[in-house]
Amino acid sequence: MSGNTITLDGKTVEFAEGETLYDVARRHGDTVPTLCYDDRLEAFGACRLCVVEVEGSANPVASCTTTATPGMVVRTRTEALEKHRKTLMELVVSENPSGARIDPLRGMASQELAHLAVRYEADGSRFQGKQSGRSHTSDPNPMILRDYDHCISCYRCVRVCAEQEGDYAISVANRGFHTQITTEFGGFLEDSACTFCGQCVQTCPTGALGDKRSMQHQDTPGEVERTRSICPYCGVGCSVDILTKGETVVGVHPAMDGPANEGALCVKGQFGWDWVQHRDRLRTPLVRKDGKFVEATWDEALDRVAEGFAAVREKHGRHAIYAVASGRAPHESAYSVQKFIRAGFQTNQVDNCSRA
């Protein structure tokens, strides 16, 4: 810390150079509400839920866009601020026909609006009227639901697509109640610049964007549990949170604190998980007997493999055996392959499909 201090809700606290009032408040345990904020994005200041009172300012200021300066006296929760936030939440929820109740399997942030609606007892009835957004549920892509009836125009999806992914696949069209999140010419996602990374789904605070594959498990019994793991598709080592209900995988979320990916995933890491319990997946080894594949135990299968390698080496010599590792496999797998060939057969005949 720099030694600079402000007074935050009656307490003297330190702040680092460049920190916003929102950063300082959150670091000291203050739950300042927000709907348009995402750690990975430039502060937007659009939802106005995070406004705070600063002594000397005529009006409340957005804490996410206001930089802390020495000597500031800041109040984050007063009767006037809470009344202001409740009114804003009533306005926001009035546009959401579901009453802000969205299944958490839609996406990582999909419950943010619902939680704030409960916190401020906002059911949308105070400002009932016209609604904005028009769902694009006819989009044929198998991964992302575009349920824009639940959109509140926070623009987080548009901004993460541009600022984090650099794809600019979606944008904002029109104004007021006609505001719409859309692709170029209002087309399908698969015809746009979308790479199906799923970042828009995971930043959406209302569930207007959803993971279609996860939503298929809404009725799967059990509570959703999270297990931190590493994506198995390539050697980058992206951190993921695997969602399960009992023994069933029901989704994958990117780990925002993952050192390799910092909340990002590719289309495979985000959506390529349903093969785990696919009905066509082999669950036991198969060996050929009388020209047909039949189920076998692991011991039998491994013995058959070992006998095959030994027979080839005996008949043709050790240089008749080689291995090609996958460039998409984790580092541990690549190490195991080269160790198997070099230590097991005393040959350096091992290559990699992405060597060039």
Notes on the protein architecture:
Helices cover 24% and strands 19% of the residues. The chain has 9 helices and 16 strands. Strand 10 and strand 11 (239-245) form a beta hairpin. The model has no long low-confidence stretch (mean pLDDT 91).
Tags for this model:
three-stranded antiparallel sheet; Ubiquitin-like (UB roll); about 350 residues; N-terminal domain of TfIIb
Q: Report strand order across the widest sheet.
A: 2-1-5-3-4
Architecture of the largest domain, CATH level 2?
A: 2-Layer Sandwich
**What is the helix tally?**
9
Low-pLDDT residue intervals, each spanning 5 or more residues: none
Secondary structure tally: strands: 16
The structural class is alpha+beta
Determine the mean pLDDT: 91
| Percentage of residues in DSSP E strands | 15-25%
Shape: elongated
Share in helix: 10-25%
How does the major sheet shape up?
Answer: 5 strands, mixed
In CATH, the topology of the largest domain is named Alpha-Beta Plaits
First-residue to last-residue Cα separation: 47 Å
What does the radius of gyration come to? 27 Å
Order of SSEs? EEHEEEHHEHEEHEHEEEHEEHEHE
The CATH class name of the largest domain reads: Alpha Beta
Oligomeric state: single chain
Number of domains: 4
